[in-house]
Write a structure and sequence with these properties.
It comes from Oryza meridionalis. Residues 1-22 form the signal peptide. By secondary structure, the protein is mainly beta. The chain folds into two domains: 39-227, Acid Proteases (Cathepsin D, subunit A, domain 1); 237-408, Acid Proteases (Cathepsin D, subunit A, domain 1), CATH 2.40.70.10. The protein has helices at residues 33-43, 121-124, 197-200, 287-301, 349-352, and strands spanning 7-11, 18-22, 52-59, 62-69, 74-81, 87-92, 99-100, 105-106, 114-115, 129-131, 137-141, 150-161, 164-176, 180-183, 186-189, 205-209, 220-224, 237-240, 251-260, 263-265, 272-276, 283-285, 316-318, 335-339, 343-347, 353-357, 360-363, 365-367, 377-380, 388-393, 398-403. The strands form six sheets. The protein has a six-stranded mixed beta barrel. Strands 19, 20, 21, 24, 25 and 29 form a six-stranded mixed beta sheet that branches. Strands 23-27-26 form a three-stranded antiparallel beta sheet. The protein is globular, with a radius of gyration of 21 Å. The two termini are 34 Å apart. It binds 2-acetamido-2-deoxy-beta-D-glucopyranose (8 copies). One 2-acetamido-2-deoxy-beta-D-glucopyranose is lined by residues 41-42, 44, 202, 204.
């Protein structure tokens, strides 16, 4: 994909919906992946044959994991970000920090903490690195999601996350312009980079399964290495990961077709590249496909849409409309997204008609035109990933998925 220069990120809240603006970009600079991979891995000591089971939980408006850092262990919590490039947490002393539920990580109180020297190969491979006064590797991460700018220093310490224990290189953020991370202390990135949790644990596979947002979402799971396996029934499907550039930390797949019941939704002749991520709430479709599905849903609901849809949605109906609700007597059809290799992902109306409060239900899909991207990109949002187990095989470069009861996996 080209760069996501200016992007808007939607966070789906369980009670109300809020729209968060974001500018994603500048992060996909050439990290020397191959070189770094080898070096970092020499340090990574993954437990359990490279495997691990990490319980993750819905904490409005995102999925998070509890972890500990250091010796003795200091508790922290982190947002699970599939496309995230690295692992970071806020550290004391902090110049400018957002509020977090747990105390800041105190490096002086950990006997296993090691600063990353600024002349190390690892430090030099980090874009925008610098030398701090004490010779530690300083880094600057510009414009992650939501205008997130963080400044900090690189270090290494022992992490325990679920059943996995590993010595990880991480960012100690001490200055950021982030307003809030909803109580979390930092972010665990699972992206295709040597600095992510997946990269540092040398995991050749990982999987996750998001139990539906809200109370049920308390029992979701991230499975690393050997632990990552699908049940592999008839409903399991596999599609290749798309390699759009050699410096992208993202996971992309290729959309070939969309059906709304029996209606074939027109997609671009060559399909569309789809970003899979855990940050976006709703899904975004290339504009032509979105307009077609919007029309098909309106026809199927058989009622006039609300003139001023609840922000940030594009299409809303009164809940009382005959076929508006997931619980209505006139059932709406499933949306079936078909990815390369005939891998079909079914999105039932309970996942695409979102209860937006105030007696309205809204289509949880939007046009990617509103993201002002430079490329034709679609995005598979979290709502449409709920109760589907996604397995990323980094050796075979494939994404497999199957419907699952996510709360029973960990
Ligand atoms: C997209 O572009 C339009 C028109 O230039 C602008 O009004 C809007 O704020 C932009 N949206 C984002 C998310 O940058
Ligand atoms: C419901 O409507 C009220 C009054 O119009 C408004 O203040 C409130 O923000 C709405 N709530 C949601 C969830 O849209
Ligand atoms: C990383 O994985 C590869 C194969 O998948 C293996 O050959 C290599 O030894 C592993 N490295 C470490 C440090 O575990
Ligand atoms: C995460 O930690 C918090 C305390 O910081 C605790 O209340 C919560 O139950 C933990 N959640 C899980 C899923 O372990
Ligand atoms: C950090 O830990 C050190 C050593 O245990 C202690 O002296 C210091 O007060 C702690 N700092 C904070 C901010 O808690
Ligand atoms: C993607 O393609 C580029 C160029 O063909 C190649 O250098 C790179 O290794 C590929 N990346 C992956 C993850 O396969
Ligand atoms: C679509 O794919 C065909 C065959 O791979 C290619 O020749 C054509 O340029 C592509 N069109 C677009 C718009 O990308
Ligand atoms: C369907 O019914 C359930 C349980 O009564 C309710 O929680 C949910 O909001 C309803 N969904 C819609 C779209 O009305």
């Amino acid at each position: 994909m080209g760069r996501l220069v200016a992007t808007l990120v939607l966070v789906m809240c369980s009670a109300a919906c809020s729209l968060a603006r974001a500018h994603v970009g500048g992060l996909r600079r050439g990290v020397e992946r191959a070189n770094m991979r080898g070096r970092l891995l020499a340090d990574a000591a993954a437990a359990g044959g490279g495997g691990g089971v990490v319980p993750i939980y819905w904490s409005q408006p995102l999925y998070m994991a509890n972890l500990t850092i250091g010796t003795p262990p200091q508790p922290a919590s982190a947002i699970i970000h599939l496309a995230g490039e690295f692992v970071w947490t806020q550290c004391a002393p902090c110049r400018r920090c957002f509020k977090q539920d747990l105390p800041l990580f105190n490096r002086s109180a950990s006997s296993t903490y090691r600063p990353e020297p600024c002349d190390s190969a690892r430090c030099e491979s980090v874009p925008a690195h610098s030398c701090s006064g004490d010779g530690a590797c300083g880094y600057e991460r510009k414009t992650l999601y939501w205008d997130w700018d963080t400044f900090g220093i690189g270090g290494t310490d022992t992490f325990a996350i679920g059943t996995a224990t590993a010595s990880l290189g991480f960012g100690c953020a001490m200055d950021s312009n982030i307003e809030q991370l909803w109580g979390a202390s930092g972010v665990v990135g699972l992206g295709r980079t040597p600095w992510s949790l997946v990269g540092q644990m040398n995991a050749t596979a990982f999987s996750y399964c998001l139990a539906p947002h809200g109370a049920a979402g308390k029992k979701s799971a991230l499975l690393l290495g050997d632990s990552a396996k699908l049940a592999g029934g008839k409903s399991a499907a596999t599609t290749p990961l798309v390699n759009t550039s050699d410096d992208s930390s993202d996971y992309m797949i290729h959309l070939e077709g969309i059906k709304f019941g029996d209606v074939i939704i027109a997609t671009p002749p060559n399909g569309s590249v789809v970003l899979v991520d855990t940050i976006f709430g709703v899904s975004f479709l290339v504009d032509a496909a979105f307009q077609a599905i919007k029309k098909a849903v309106t026809v199927a609901v058989g009622a006039a849409p609300i003139a001023t849809p609840t922000k940030p949605f594009d299409l809303c109906f009164p809940k009382a409309a005959p076929a508006a609700g997931a619980n209505s007597s006139l059932p709406l059809p499933d949306v079936v997204l078909t990815f390369q290799g005939a891998a079909a992902l079914t999105v039932p109306p309970s996942k695409y008609m979102y209860d937006a409060g105030n007696g309205t239900v809204c289509l949880a899909m939007m046009s990617s035109a509103m993201l002002n991207l430079t490329t034709d990109l679609s995005i598979l949002g979290r709502l449409h990933q709920e109760n589907i187990h996604f397995l990323f095989d980094l050796d075979k470069e494939t994404l497999s998925f199957e419907p699952a009861d996510c709360s029973s996996l960990s």
